[in-house]
Design brief:
- The protein starts with a helix and ends with a strand.
- It is of the alpha+beta class and 143 residues long.
- The strands form three sheets. Strands 3-6-7-8 form a four-stranded mixed beta sheet, covered by helices on one side. The chain has a two-stranded antiparallel ribbon with strand order 1-2. The chain has a two-stranded antiparallel ribbon with strand order 4-5.
- It has a domain at 47-143: Trna Endonuclease, Chain: A, domain 1, CATH 3.40.1350.10.
- A hairpin with a 2-residue loop joins strand 1 and strand 2.
- The chain is built from three helices and eight strands; from the N terminus they run H-E-E-H-E-E-E-E-E-H-E.
């Protein structure tokens, strides 16, 4: 029976009755074409991020900023008010990972930065940023 099925499949493909099953190639790399770059042991997701990292390191070296941190993670929490029981439960629903966090020594504020190009500003990204800003009380500077 298998021989009959194989013969029919071969015949049908040759005569255009069916198309051969093709498996799409696996996607390789970043969907936006960014190539990861390592700078002094730090992995940067793109050339733009690597350039900003070098700029921030130079600012830190000259005393304009301090406590430069790469890839800081901010958990995204929500209050479960709909359950209306006490105590109110807090649930972690995701996380937002910025590119940089540092202390601006001129203003004294903590700055959270993300290097973004227009195609990478997806709806999901915007939502994560809005929730992170509301939960943690900072503003994300997009470079």
């Amino acid at each position: 029976m298998t021989d009959d099925r194989d013969a029919w499949t071969t015949y049908a493909e040759k005569n255009g009755l069916i198309q051969a099953a093709t498996v799409p190639p696996a996607r390789q790399g970043n969907k936006y074409g960014a190539k990861p770059i390592h700078v002094d042991g730090v992995r940067c997701a793109s050339a733009k991020e690597a350039a900003r990292f070098l700029e921030l390191r130079l600012l830190e070296k000259h005393g304009a900023i301090a406590d430069l941190e790469t890839q800081p993670v901010f958990p995204l929490h929500i209050f479960e008010l709909w359950r209306s029981g006490l105590p109110i439960r807090i649930t972690t629903v995701g996380r937002y990972t910025a590119d940089f966090r540092y202390l601006n020594l001129e203003t004294g504020e903590i700055v959270v930065e993300d290097t973004k190009s227009d195609p990478t500003k997806t709806e999901a990204y915007r939502l994560r940023v809005q929730v992170a800003q509301a939960v943690h009380g900072f503003t994300v500077a997009e470079i």
